[in-house]
Specification:
- About 40% of the residues lie in helices and about 25% in strands.
- It is α/β, with parallel strands linked by helices.
- It has one domain: Nucleotidyltransferase, domain 5, CATH 3.30.420.10.
């Protein structure tokens, strides 16, 4: 794995941005989101402005984004929202002129030696980054774990 600062991004609404220097995990940020009201419902969406503010602070890093696609059994609305989130991430990176690479889930998972499922990502990230294992302790921390693994094994 080449050195240099990399950002691993799990682009989902529950995703995260991991900052790595070589194989060292420096920081993990939850995906910045906003709540949007529409009538009686409230929906969460990735915030382009907040994401741009965060990525601007990390200028010069190479970005590795998980290449998303439809997953079997995923509903239409869920697929649309996931694609929208990924598009926001890609658009913000392009707008900031950040160098970007894409990696499929199959590629980074194989390289990472990830066990099955989201819990497998959390366990593998805790093994690789023991000093930051607390970042991956909760079930909902799978986005953090996957961002760290994408950053480490995505290139």
């Amino acid at each position: 794995m080449e050195g240099g600062v990399r950002l691993g991004i799990d682009p989902g609404i529950n995703g995260a941005i991991a900052v790595l220097d070589g194989e060292q995990l420096l920081a993990v940020y939850d995906m910045p989101v906003v709540e949007l009201r529409s009538g009686k419902t409230t929906k969460r969406s990735v915030s382009p402005a907040l994401l741009a503010d965060l990525l601007r602070q990390l200028a010069g890093a190479h970005v590795v984004i998980e290449k998303v696609g439809a997953m079997p059994g995923q509903g239409v609305a869920s697929m649309f929202n996931f694609g929208k989130s990924a598009g926001i991430v890609e658009g913000v990176c392009a707008g900031l002129g950040l160098p970007v690479s894409f990696v499929t889930p199959q590629q980074w998972q194989k390289r990472a030696g990830r066990r099955d499922g989201k819990d497998g990502s959390r366990a593998r990230a805790a093994e690789l980054f023991p000093a930051q294992a607390g970042l991956f302790a909760r079930v909902k921390d799978d986005g953090r774990a996957e961002a760290a693994l994408i950053g480490r094994f995505g290139i």
